Amino acid sequence: MELRHLRYFIAVAEELSFTRAAERLHIGQPPLSQQIQALELEVGARLLERNKRWVRLTEAGKLFLADARQILAQSEQAVVTARRAARGEAGELRVGFTFSTPFTPLFAQVIRQYRQLYPHVALTLHEMATLHQLDAIEGRKLDLGFVRPPEVALPDAIALTMLREDPLVLILPADAPLARHRKIRVADLQGMPFVMYPKEAGTGIYHQIFRLCRSAGFVPHIAMEAGEASTIIGLVAAGLGVSVLPQPFDRIRMTGVAYRPLADSAATTALLLAQRRDDASPLVEAFIGLATAAARHTGAA
């Protein structure tokens, strides 16, 4: 059964006249009559009663008309949906983000604008550590990810887009002697206990802290591990050590904690957008375009 047969039948059913329906459809009356007869033969039921003076719907025709209208409406909606998807305006987009990402104004701005511009896209957000995001993107479980530098070899299938740079900050007890300094060198942290993410947490900051400390001539002593940044900061407040995290975390205000910038030039991190190199879908391209434009607008890229 072809959609044009449904359109022909609907026109005749609404006009109750083959002549007017043929004019409405811009086809000849004999071909229209032939198409309706072919439709009735395919359906296996008479849909219209007609003679030279009138056309009426049979009971089967009345029921068929309702379904035909619904099928035609669904087919038209399918076309609209497909065209939206081709323009990146419909479908599903799965985006990951690191624990620090929501503390950056850029993230909130991009997500808010994207939802406003593309209301027909099912946007799902997943909080995941950087390395876990890269695995999920490579495995096609995520489409994009806000990540920090992984500090390990990047999979060949993954491409990164730079969005912004963030300094790293030292988190230490407010009453610690080092807290009296405006800036602190990584070398000044030698011999101090560190509170860090576990290695298996999949964060790039774990490897970066070790790299910075080795460059300063020592290996950090890990006193405590915690899987949440707020827990790490709370343990620092309890006097169990110091930690190093991206600056956006300094928005977590807690009594007994001080945040100080690190003087080392290498004590910086970046917010990156990760994607599969072979993914050129309109959904992905639209999101990346919005994110990079927002980064340029804020002067952070």
From TrEMBL:
Residues 1-58 form the HTH lysR-type domain. Transmembrane segments: none annotated. Keywords: DNA-binding, Transcription, Transcription regulation. GO terms for molecular function: DNA binding; DNA-binding transcription factor activity. PROSITE patterns: HTH_LYSR. GO terms for cellular component: protein-DNA complex. It comes from the Bacteria. Pfam families: HTH_1 (PF00126), LysR_substrate (PF03466). InterPro entries: LysR_HTH_N, LysR_subst-bd, WH-like_DNA-bd_sf, WH_DNA-bd_sf. Belongs to the LysR transcriptional regulatory family. This is LysR family transcriptional regulator. It comes from Pseudoduganella rivuli.
